[in-house]
Amino acid sequence: MPVSIAVLPGDGIGPEITAPTLEILARLGDFAFAEHPFGGASIDAHGTALTDETLAACREADAVLLAAVGGPKWDTTDPDAPRPEQGLLGLRKALGLYANLRPVRAVEALLDASPRRREVVEGTDMLVVRELTGGIYFGEKKRDKDSASDLCVYTEGEVERIVRSAARIAQGRRKKLCSVDKANVLETSRLWREVAARVVAKEFPDLQLTNMLVDACAMHLIRRPADFDVIVTENMFGDILTDEASMLAGSMGMLPSASLGDGKRGLYEPIHGSAPDIAGKGVANPYATILSVAMMLRHSLGLEAEARAVEAAVNDAIVAGILPADVAAPGAKPATTGEAGAAVRLALRAAR
């Protein structure tokens, strides 16, 4: 019986980066792909970013692959108007996906694509574990004539499970866990710091736990990124810090992510947006989406050898100089979306 993958191409460049990714995935096993409208495309078709039918399909699938959502067409300050991002938040919540894994690794062939100096970025290999279903994004929201508020709430249980997830990962890496908060100002962060210390001391005494304020972390990501191993933090902080950290790898177009819960099913997506300014031009970078598939193979499907093969194939394509516009050297002719996908397929075929 084939492995079922719910595919959500979404908006903007989403369909363009989805197509080569599915071609690569199809070469690695028996997969059944079913595409569903999501985000702005779903708003246009059905008036909501996440339909009951799409949610049901995602619940029944072995894994979910999402490309990108959003765009100026659906931007609005009307609190009653549907927004593409509501579909993403709703899907994560409905599937119980509370741990967002975002690896950031400096690739030798792309060191000069980073705005930071080569010697600063070299050796960077970190994983940010972002809490995904709590905090200010999901808190009660109020708006009246001249004010607005967003409630940030975390429970001990929510903090315990995300710290535990990050600590397990850190045990398999360099055993360094950095918990990021704003404990000098926020009560939720003081709870976060207390719970993190308790969980690590009791369950993971072999780990080196450090606490860092989010503004200090933002600075040190730029000053000394190679010092970080695993970072665990709350929803909004993780969202912002990983966008910043993407520049260490050269571009957001290089960074994949996995959103996981207690079971094997996960949601896999690049961390970048829908880039409507380049949609339809065939120049979008598909590498982050392809690398997200590698995370899917590893975390949801238990296919470690295949995951490593995809990661190696992407690296081979980069080393061969097949670089889309966001990471291409100044003056060099950038690779198209199709050329980048074809280079990964060729590297996979050569390896097999």
Instruction: Report helical residue fraction.
Output: 40-55%
Low-confidence segments: none
Largest sheet: 10 strands, mixed
What is the third-level CATH name, the topology of the largest domain?
A: Isopropylmalate Dehydrogenase
N-to-C span: 23 Å
CATH architecture of the largest domain: 3-Layer(aba) Sandwich
- CATH class category of the largest domain: Alpha Beta
Radius of gyration: 20 Å
**Order of secondary-structure elements:** EHEHHEHEHEEEHEHEHEHEEHHH
How many structural domains does the protein architecture include? 2
Mean pLDDT: 95
Shape: globular
| Extended strand count | 12
Main structural class = alpha/beta
Describe the protein's architecture and organization.
The chain contains 12 helices and 12 strands. The chain is of the alpha/beta class and 352 residues long. The protein has 2 domains: 1-98 and 262-352, Isopropylmalate Dehydrogenase, CATH 3.40.718.10; 115-249, Isopropylmalate Dehydrogenase, CATH 3.40.718.10. The strands form 2 sheets. The protein has a 10-stranded mixed β-sheet, sandwiched between helices. The protein has a two-stranded antiparallel ribbon with strand order 6-7. A hairpin with a 4-residue loop joins strand 6 and strand 7.
Question: Can you tag this structure with a few keywords?
Answer:
352 residues; 2 domains; two-stranded antiparallel sheet; Isopropylmalate Dehydrogenase; globular; 18% strand; 40% helix; alpha/beta
